[in-house]
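Hello forum,

I keep getting stuck at the same step: I have a sequence, I want structure tokens, and every attempt I make locally crashes halfway through. Rather than fight my setup again tonight, could one of you with a working pipeline run this one for me? It's a single chain of 221 residues.
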Amino acid sequence: MDRGRQELIKIITIEREYGCGAADIAKELAGRLGWALWDHEITCAIAKRLNCDVRSVERREEKPDPTFYRLIKVFMRGSYEEHYSGGGPVELLDGETLARLFEKVVTDLAGRGPCVIVGRGSPWFLRTRDDVLRTFLYAPYEEKLRRMLERGVSHEEAEDLLERVDRDRAAFVTKYYAKTWPQRDIYHLMVNTLPGDAAVIDVILHEMEILNRGAQVASRS
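Reply #2:
Ran it on my machine without issues. Output:
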């Protein structure tokens, strides 16, 4: 991309703490903008490239060495907990290969037009593009627990997921990218979702408007 010319925002990435409501927020945001949403669809794309379905990956947790596969699941977990059934054998991949695969899929999706991308390292992979608004959503523990209970998750399971999913995400990023998760300096916004989904979307759209105004001014100068 030509760094001398400022681009209007056409991609919004949403990294998030588990359980903060990012999936619903991303879906509503994409709908308001009329943009494509890439969330659990990324799980499908990765499963196809791995020649497996998500259930097969999840079953690997039962093997004697579950840690690597647990980390894969953390990032392949669709926010809607849906599964792609592609069939075929599971290919065993090392962490470095999987890390490169995330980048390949995300950058490919970013080239398909205006979109909202949820997680999967997208803020980091697209950090050099000035047409990307990079956000991080979080919430207090009790708010995340409330949201999960409202979705029908049992109290015990919700507490377990809140305890380990973000910890495993951070461990994966540290091990395979040598970065800290979340890396705050790459985000334009870090927003607490406690005030509600509508308020969070308004904040994101306002930031997008500010960045677009700056791009328009820069293009005229």
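The chain has one domain: 11-220. If your local run keeps crashing, start a new thread with the error log.
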